[in-house]
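Usage

Read records sequentially. Each one opens with the input sequence:
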Amino acid sequence: MSYFIPPDPDKTVTALILAGGLGSRLRTIAADHPKVLAPVAGRPFLTYLLDQLIATGFRHVVLCTGYKGKQVKKTFGNNYNNLAIQYSQEPEPLGTGGALRFALPMIHTKSVLVFNGDSYVKSKLQEFLVWYFEKKPLAALLLARLSDTRRYGQVEFDTNVRVISFEEKGARLGLGWINAGVYLFNRSLIESIPDGKPISLELDIFPSLIAKGLYGFRCEDAFIDIGTPESYAEAEVFFKKLDTHS
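and closes with the structure output:
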């Protein structure tokens, strides 16, 4: 079984995608699909994340599935192009943190790359990985810059890009940095999550890490999520533009 392997074998990384979301706000659009299978420009949204992993050099991914996880497995099977797929099907809703903890037996590296399954940022992941291994934080968030952050809330950080606070959604209008839904963790962080309990990365884990050293990696590339009918409707144009300029 292979992972992303950079020149230094001590820097191997396991990639996981949180693919268990209910997608309750998309029920009227994609009622028969889990959110990661919602069609965008003629193919499941999840394929864009898988393609990004392949382009970065990954050869293996763990899908943390939940709601209608059998559909995801039936759609992709054990391989997507040259990417091997392993499934961690949660027995009950465990939240983003709980889903990662449940997948721990499938993580055999010190470092872990995690994607939210309902968002995409056109980032050169290689740069994020190089920066992470140089800085060696316990955890790091990929940050996207948006002209209007009201829907997401802002991430505040100091001159060393160490996160100092998370601003609530809707608190401030205007330009700022948001959590783009891509993370790099030391495996020990996932080991510390209580097993079998519903836990949120965003609400429970990240705020608790501020005092321990949580960092951000700034990225000004295009970002989108498919969490609402409005943003889902924008996704097709978003990816067509990326294909045009790639």
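Summary fields computed downstream for this record:
- Helices lie at 46-56, 69-76, 95-102, 125-135, 187-191, 201-209, 229-245.
- The domain at 9-245 is CATH 3.90.550.10 (Spore Coat Polysaccharide Biosynthesis Protein SpsA; Chain A).
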